[in-house]
């Protein structure tokens, strides 16, 4: 009996599950937000994931429900669970990917290394935190941020006035998350996959480079990470996956500090941009592993096929050209590059695809990957 | 402007083009023979590829037409070309994949190494060939054979009487192909891809093991092939691709004889079973390369990701179980194995999927691949 995995959300993460599902002979069915989404090939319909009846009707046709994003409201998730539909990750875990204040509180309880943080409800409370932390801090909205949105460096208590006002108008109470401005050497990301029955596998920790709050480049494995940094990163991610009961893929974004600590920045409970290199660079991609994990199938090995992989995001440019339009030159100049188009309408700054190169020599890999990606710059 | 590749035929070869098309952001549209075919996810409709109007209507909606098989009749192919629709491979090349007598004659003209052969129209002519070749030979129908069908070892001129009778009743005249029974050490296969504009790339030559006329195992690269055998095989395939004007993928099945010759056995002008290892084992898979070639895009590199790859076909068993039904045990015991299900109804002897393992040590690779494939035996 073939299995069907239902994916809520039709973005590029759902899209990249389709090749893995085809190879495994698993049916994938996407509930897309709109017509023409990136994962439209596998979309049986369009529907609003905020609407419990829409999501229930979709979920009743599949064997397990998983996600392209973490925005499905808790009451909708709980309605699925109440009907006995397997949901991975489940609502109790997803809660911590949906709310950064709950995440910080829970990770602190678990004794995991996080930046100094506080929940602040007023500019006065923010002022206290600033005073205690050298006059600068990072303020984040607890919910709804991504790709640098909902994150702001502040130097004065009034710098977040608009967010405090919005919280007050929201009427639900609540607070902003304020964190110390971490003095980091670089950013890392650790991918792990966990089955409902408990098995966990980890990929090598990777280095991520952000530009304007958006992931720009990923190097796998992170250079000079073998040993302590790799062990610390894997241990942190495994403890989070187990501590929060995550099922499926978990990505943990980390800071490697200038004083050699590794601190947890953000979590994502799904395939994540920092793991795209695994499509070409690892025996098991994060997309295949996510499908295996949510179906509670045994997990694949996570080693690298070549010593180095570099992934570079392609952002849309102002001219609306797609990656496909520019393949002729890019492929001629970079025959080792793997091109991944999300088949999305190109808009300035929008992630429309990525390029990965794998090889023995990191300098050469980086040269080829950056060169190939440059053909798609607007 | 996204490109659309139209594929005639909805089998597993069309299916395995879909992941590559998704990654490249190329649209793929399949004209399937029936509902529920292996490539149904990309099928916009069902139609008879013998019917020129059906195929023309399909072809007008795509940028280039290619194939899952070589059975589209020449008049249909020529109607597409007459309308200016790009067809790769084109009818002038496909002719030689459709008719083994024409293929043997053309390869002989080109001076390529082939077994001794003759076109025989009567048992008496077959008898002469048998007498000249030690009393044994291989008789093949010129058209329609695959997976060992239409191929027979004969020792008497009467052993092919039924085929001679069928030819006579067919009324189109014609002949059978008779070939010397080659004394071979092993069978090899050489994949190349050629663009319409002429560029050609070759993968390493592979060793194939047949059972009951069906490909059972493929080892890439062929053991002990580096040097002369690899050069000969590549040279033969390149000369065939250029000599016959092949565009897209070409697979050349070869005999390595006990007296160290390399002879051409069969041709296929499409992705081929002997190239499935490239999905997991090469930087560029034969499926991605076929799409690049038929769109006349620059070709990707064809090196191996790991020193050895072994692909094993999974045949359907009598119990009707699918690969997916047996994943739990297979994946637990063989976490390095890559599983590929064609999502076809399981019937005894039918190719329903394959397993590939890549690694550094051929003995270990073979042990894991055979072990993983064994879980799916009926």
Automatic annotation (TrEMBL), chains A, B:
Query: What does the record give as its pathway?
Result: Purine metabolism; IMP biosynthesis via de novo pathway; 5-amino-1-(5-phospho-D-ribosyl)imidazole-4-carboxylate from 5-amino-1-(5-phospho-D-ribosyl)imidazole (N5-CAIR route): step 1/2
Question: Which residue windows are coiled coil?
Answer: none
Keyword annotations: ATP-binding, Ligase, Nucleotide-binding, Purine biosynthesis
Task: State the EC number(s).
Answer: 6.3.4.18
Q: What class of enzyme is it?
A: ligase
Taxonomy, superkingdom: Bacteria
Q: Which GO terms describe its biological process?
A: 'de novo' IMP biosynthetic process
Q: Which positions fall inside the ATP-grasp domain?
A: 104-295
State how it assembles: Homodimer.
Q: Tell me, in a sentence or two, what this protein's role is.
A: Catalyzes the ATP-dependent conversion of 5-aminoimidazole ribonucleotide (AIR) and HCO(3)(-) to N5-carboxyaminoimidazole ribonucleotide (N5-CAIR). Catalyzes the ATP-dependent conversion of 5-aminoimidazole ribonucleotide (AIR) and HCO(3)- to N5-carboxyaminoimidazole ribonucleotide (N5-CAIR).
Query: This protein is called what?
Result: N5-carboxyaminoimidazole ribonucleotide synthase
| Species of origin | Humibacter ginsenosidimutans
């Amino acid at each position: 009996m073939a299995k069907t995995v239902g994916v809520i959300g039709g973005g590029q993460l759902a899209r990249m599950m389709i090749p893995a599902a085809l190879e495994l002979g698993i049916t994938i069915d996407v509930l897309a937000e709109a017509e023409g989404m990136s994962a439209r090939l596998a979309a049986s319909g369009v529907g609003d994931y905020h609407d419990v009846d829409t999501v229930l009707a979709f979920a009743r046709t599949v064997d397990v429900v998983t996600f392209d994003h973490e925005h499905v409201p808790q009451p909708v998730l709980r309605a699925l669970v109440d009907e006995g539909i397997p949901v991975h990750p489940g609502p109790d875990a997803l809660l911590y990917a949906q709310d950064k204040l709950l995440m910080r509180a829970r990770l602190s309880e678990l004794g995991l290394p996080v930046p100094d943080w506080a929940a602040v409800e007023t500019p006065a409370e923010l002022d206290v935190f600033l005073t205690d932390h050298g006059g600068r801090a990072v303020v984040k909205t607890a919910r709804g941020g991504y790709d640098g949105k909902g994150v702001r460096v502040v130097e004065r208590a009034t710098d977040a006035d608009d967010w405090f006002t919005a919280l007050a108008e929201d009427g639900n109470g609540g607070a902003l998350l304020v964190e110390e401005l971490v003095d980091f050497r670089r950013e890392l990301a650790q991918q792990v996959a966990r089955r409902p029955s408990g098995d966990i596998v980890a990929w090598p920790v990777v280095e991520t480079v952000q530009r304007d709050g958006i992931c720009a480049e990923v190097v796998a494995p992170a250079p000079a990470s073998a040993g302590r940094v790799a062990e610390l990163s894997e241990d942190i991610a495994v403890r989070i996956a187990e501590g929060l009961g995550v099922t499926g893929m978990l990505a943990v974004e980390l800071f490697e500090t200038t004083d050699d600590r590794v601190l947890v920045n953000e979590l994502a409970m799904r395939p994540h941009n920092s793991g795209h290199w695994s499509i070409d660079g690892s025996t098991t991609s994060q997309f295949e592993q996510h499908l295996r994990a949510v179906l509670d199938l045994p997990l694949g090995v996570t080693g690298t096929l070549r010593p180095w992989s570099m992934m570079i995001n392609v952002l849309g440019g102002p001219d609306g050209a797609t990656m496909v339009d520019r393949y002729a030159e890019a492929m001629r100049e970079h025959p080792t590059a793997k091109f991944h188009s999300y088949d999305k309408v190109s808009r300035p700054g929008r992630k429309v695809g990525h390029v990965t190169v794998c090889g023995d020599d990191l300098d050469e890999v980086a040269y080829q990957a950056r060169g190939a990606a440059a053909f798609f710059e607007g």
